[in-house]
Amino acid sequence: MNPGQTAGRPGRKSIAAAALLATLISGQAWAAKREFEMNIEDTRITLVEKQQFHTFAFAGQVPGPLFHVDEGDDMEVKVNNMTALPHTIHWHGMLQRGTWKMDGVPDVTQEGIKPGDSFTYKFKAEPSGTMWYHCHVNVNEHVALRGMWGPFIVKPKAPTALEKRVTKDFILMLSDWDSKWANKPGFGGLPGDKFDYFTINGRAYPDTEPLRITKGDVVRIRLIGAGDLVHSIHIHGHAFKIAFKDGFPLPQPITGDTVLVGPGERYDLIFEADNPGRWMVHDHVDSHTMNGDRPHGGLMTVIEYTEVKSDDAFYPWNKRVPKPNFYYQDSLKKGPGIYTNETFQGQAVQ
Ligand SMILES: [Cu+2]
């Protein structure tokens, strides 16, 4: 997010949000201070078509704002709980050396942030890589069903040779929903629940968005398992390198076309865009490509090469209205900062 922007729904006065960046001298090294304030708000989002869901959204959006910072930055994030239930934020992947009380686990490192209360998290962004953040109160409901998650990308001080070549960078957060609990906040997420909606960045196909690339690009896809289920992500037409696991570079990247992503895990895939066409990206757990009882939905998207026209009559996206920044690719290009995303803004629930 850039200084001066507001982290919440435009026009909602209760939202006090500001981000500013100060550069401080820390020892002998330069470390930026990243300050941000965000609300947790009762928010209705639309997964696909008419299927809506009541969430407790960070800054009124699902996924939450993108934290894109440099390794070693000093984070200071004030969280205001505007909902009727307690929450915390766990910064998944952050080592919290010397700051264990900032780890965001209720009744272990802090009390849950009560309705109407605030809490400020202060910690150092380390190590680098694809990380994420999520509530840690009643995770079975708040993470699995209420959209309480967002991406946290820490830029390395010493990037690998492979990642230096990347020209297109995309974030895909995978999650699962049981429509039975859509309008019952405070309930759900029980053993035996039947998940019937499956999303990438909170949307199911065909309301996801193509990954637009051009021949010659080096593409990075950051997969984040934010939901309750395991997803077997398959990309057609390309062999990718599994280059990072949970943010850490693999000394010997693994070549493949399918990768299994469990809850909490991150995998960064990197591949050369060398095969112009229109290529499926989907979960190979076949039932996860459904929207309720209707097939050809769920956890699917398409790699579209810009060289290939999208005007075939049979193609659902032949006349699509683009959803800007759907994979945070525009925010990632802007460099370090904290970025809200209008594409993911829901409606306030009063
Ligand atoms: Cu919560």
How would you describe this structure to a colleague?
The protein has helices spanning 139-142, 161-164, 329-333, and strands at residues 20-26, 29-48, 51-58, 66-70, 74-81, 90-92, 118-124, 129-134, 149-155, 168-177, 197-200, 211-213, 218-225, 231-235, 240-245, 248-256, 258-261, 266-272, 278-283, 290-291, 294-295, 300-305, 337-339, 347-348. The protein contains three helices and 24 strands. The protein is globular. Helices cover 4% and strands 42% of the residues. Strands 1, 2, 3, 5, 7 and 24 form a six-stranded mixed sheet that branches. A six-stranded mixed sheet has the order 11-10-13-18-15-16. A five-stranded mixed sheet has the order 6-8-9-4-23, with no helix packed on it. The chain is mainly beta. It folds into two domains: 20-162 and 343-348, Cupredoxins -  blue copper proteins (Immunoglobulin-like, Sandwich); 164-320, Cupredoxins -  blue copper proteins (Immunoglobulin-like, Sandwich). Mean pLDDT is 93; it is low at 1-6 and 9-28. It binds copper (II) ion (CU).
* Radius of gyration over C-alpha positions, nearest whole angstrom: 19 Å
By CATH, the architecture of the largest domain is named: Sandwich
Give the total of beta strands: 24
Low-pLDDT residue intervals, each spanning 5 or more residues:
1-6, 9-28
> How widely separated are the two ends?
26 Å
Protein name: Multicopper oxidase domain-containing protein
Pfam family, one: Cu-oxidase_2
Keywords: Copper, Metal-binding, Oxidoreductase, Signal
Main location: periplasm
